[in-house]
Amino acid sequence: MLEVAWELLIERGLADLTLAELGRRVETSAGHLLYYFGSKDGLLLEVLRWSEAQLWARWEESRAEEVTFGERFDLFCRQFMPQGLGDPRWLVWIEVWPRVLRIEELRAPYEELDAVWRDELARLLGEAEVDNATVLSRRICALLDGLSVAIVLGEDDVSIDAAVDHARALLPAELSARAGG
Predict the structure, then answer these.
(1) To 10 degrees, the CA torsion angle through 175, 67, 159, 143?
(2) What pLDDT does 14 receive?
(3) 63 and 73 in contact (C-beta within 8 Å)?
(4) CA dihedral over 31, 32, 38, 44, signed as positive or negative
(5) What would the pLDDT profile of 79-135 be if each residue is shown by its tens digit?
(6) How many Cβ atoms from other residues are within 10 Å of residue 173's Cβ?
(7) What is the pTM for the complete model shown?
(8) Higher confidence at residue 18 or residue 55?
(9) What is the pLDDT of residue 180?
């Protein structure tokens, strides 16, 4: 069901996604979906959780590989960011952001999903013995968020490679050199 909702979000965007259309596609009623998700915003949150769980599983698989700090940092950045113009995962995040401001029930689940990536980067930086890893993690993730929006919207002067380079530039000098920067 979440995969079909994902496809509808990509196809139509949240504004034009209806529980009735999703119900038709998964052969159930809009009322059943409303009961299950609580609202269209609840559906959006579950789709985001589903998407992030898939991405997180890929990240965890990559953690088993023996790689240098720089290779792992670059991989983190590349998994964090969109894959290009119109990346569906990022379009869902962009749909969620303004709703978190207006719908209190979305705030805590949103913060949990968002914190996973900052916490993971802080862990990675901590393993590399970076001072203030949590602060640096927030700074890097904020930079990547902004550059990711530019990438997903297709701004032609921002690339994934350039974004990774910008993130490396925030690392302490000794780590930046180890990360290829």
Answers:
(1) -50
(2) 66
(3) no
(4) negative
(5) 999 988 888 888 888 888 998 999 898 899 999 999 999 999 999 999 999 999 999
(6) 8
(7) 0.83
(8) 55
(9) 55
- DSSP string for residues in the chain: -HHHHHHHHHHH-STT--HHHHHHHHTS-HHHHHHHHSSHHHHHHHHHHHHHHHHHHHHHHHHTS---HHHHHHHHHHHHS-SSTT-HHHHHHHHHHHHHHH-HHHHHHHHHHHHHHHHHHHHHHHHTT-TTHHHHHHHHHHHHHHHHHHHHTT-TT--HHHHHHHHHHTS-HHHHHHTT-
What CA–CA distance (Å, rounded) separates 177 from 48? 35
* Look-up of token digits 């196809």: 11
Give the tens place of pLDDT for each residue, 5-40: 778 777 777 677 777 777 888 888 878 777 777 887
Long-range own/partner contacts, residues 170-177 (CB < 8 A, 24 or more apart): 170/136, 170/139, 170/140, 170/143, 171/73, 171/130, 171/136, 172/130, 172/131, 175/69, 175/73, 175/125, 175/128, 175/130
Instruction: Tell me which residue of 92, 95, 86 sits closest to 151, measured CA to CA.
Output: 86
Question: Taking Cα atoms as reference points, which of 37, 51, 93, 94 lies closest to residue 23?
Answer: 37
